[in-house]
């Protein structure tokens, strides 16, 4: 019986088997390397978020559901802890994109800059804070705050401005009708209230719901429902970055829009499960409660378009609080071309 040509030259069936096994091993080893190479081909984008909150659920959904990766982006999200620090990081190129209140772009512009900060995509469209009372209150009325000690937010920030705006709309003068405390750092406000400071406090979630669950306070009103639509937190970047990285910004905005639509069409339980890894220390029931509350009051924008009416409301709130340095035209600091394009 003649030996097939494939076995000629010393290649016995045993040797061929070893050769084939070696080839398989080489292929198996090369697969992870190929995957690493694909990841390296992703465009890296660093996003600085003003704080880490369930209020920004669509951002985390864009990551957890793979929408950023689908667009060829490797997005690194890191907290920058405060509007001023977020702007500093953005202006110094420490981050590419900032997620922060739109009022910060007005502050920077008013100080004078050749490379203004441009709002290109909106994430939340209402205030995200709630009024928490130390004592249970039946049939709450905003007039109950008169004569009380109110633990508010940092002066000049959106929470504080919206808070005062809402109080004034209910006929309450924040400076005369109550004792207003605003000298406590954002990160310590909840602890101050828990320690006994104030009759009422303005809190973000999930702290407000956690306090309610633990009996430390009672949610009696929503500042988001009271203040109307406003560009509370938006994605923004330097004008030069948007100009030089138009495709990247467009891909980023498209991923955010997909996430906004996903959040709008899924339940609070599904959303909480999707972003669970971002909030490991928050009980699942609290996450679901918070997300359901934000969905119910329309806090999550369903598209990234920041419209002119919202911009006008923002400046009106700033003006009422005495924090608007100058009127800024909508088109000067808002770019909706990309948001409009990806939303079609």
From TrEMBL:
Q: What is its main location?
A: periplasm
Localization, UniProt = Periplasm
Task: Cite a GO CC annotation.
Answer: periplasmic space
Q: Which Pfam families does this entry report, sorted A to Z?
A: NMT1_2
Q: Which UniProt keywords apply?
A: Signal
At the top level, the lineage of the source is Bacteria
The text of the family note is: Belongs to the bacterial solute-binding protein SsuA/TauA family.
* Record PANTHER family: ALIPHATIC SULFONATES-BINDING PROTEIN-RELATED, TAURINE-BINDING PERIPLASMIC PROTEIN
Listed name of the protein:
Uncharacterized protein
Q: Which organism is it from?
A: Priestia koreensis
């Amino acid at each position: 019986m003649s030996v097939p040509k494939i076995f000629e030259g010393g290649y016995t069936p045993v040797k061929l088997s070893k050769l084939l096994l070696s080839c398989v091993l080489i292929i198996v080893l090369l697969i992870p390397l190929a995957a690493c190479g694909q990841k390296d081909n992703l465009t890296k984008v660093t996003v600085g978020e003003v704080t880490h909150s369930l209020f920004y659920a669509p951002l985390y959904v864009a990551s957890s559901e793979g929408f950023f990766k689908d667009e060829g982006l490797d997005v690194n999200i890191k907290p920058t802890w405060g509007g001023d620090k977020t702007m500093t990081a953005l202006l110094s190129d420490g981050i590419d994109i900032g997620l922060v209140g739109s009022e910060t772009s007005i502050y920077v512009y008013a100080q004078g800059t050749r490379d203004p900060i441009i709002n290109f995509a909106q994430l939340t469209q209402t205030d995200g804070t709630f009024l928490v009372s130390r004592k249970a209150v039946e049939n709450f009325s905003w007039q109950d705050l008169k004569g009380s000690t109110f633990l508010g937010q940092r002066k000049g920030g959106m929470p504080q401005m919206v808070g005062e705006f809402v109080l004034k709309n209910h006929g309450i003068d924040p400076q005369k009708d109550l004792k207003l405390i605003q000298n406590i750092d954002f990160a310590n406000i909840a602890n101050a209230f828990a320690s006994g400071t104030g009759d009422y406090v303005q809190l973000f979630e999930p702290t407000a719901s956690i306090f309610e669950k633990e009996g430390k306070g009672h949610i009696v009103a929503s500042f988001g429902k009271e203040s109307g639509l406003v560009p509370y937190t938006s994605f923004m970047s330097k004008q030069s970055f948007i100009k030089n990285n138009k495709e990247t910004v467009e891909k980023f905005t498209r991923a955010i829009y997909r996430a906004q639509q996903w959040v709008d069409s899924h339940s609070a339980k599904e959303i909480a499960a999707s972003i669970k890894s971002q909030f490991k220390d928050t009980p699942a029931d609290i996450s679901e409660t918070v997300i359901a509350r934000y969905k119910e009051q329309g806090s999550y924008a369903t598209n990234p378009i920041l419209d002119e009416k919202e911009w006008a409301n923002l400046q009106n709130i700033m003006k009422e609080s005495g924090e608007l340095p100058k009127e800024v035209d909508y088109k000067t600091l808002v770019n909706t071309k990309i948001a409009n394009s990806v939303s079609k």
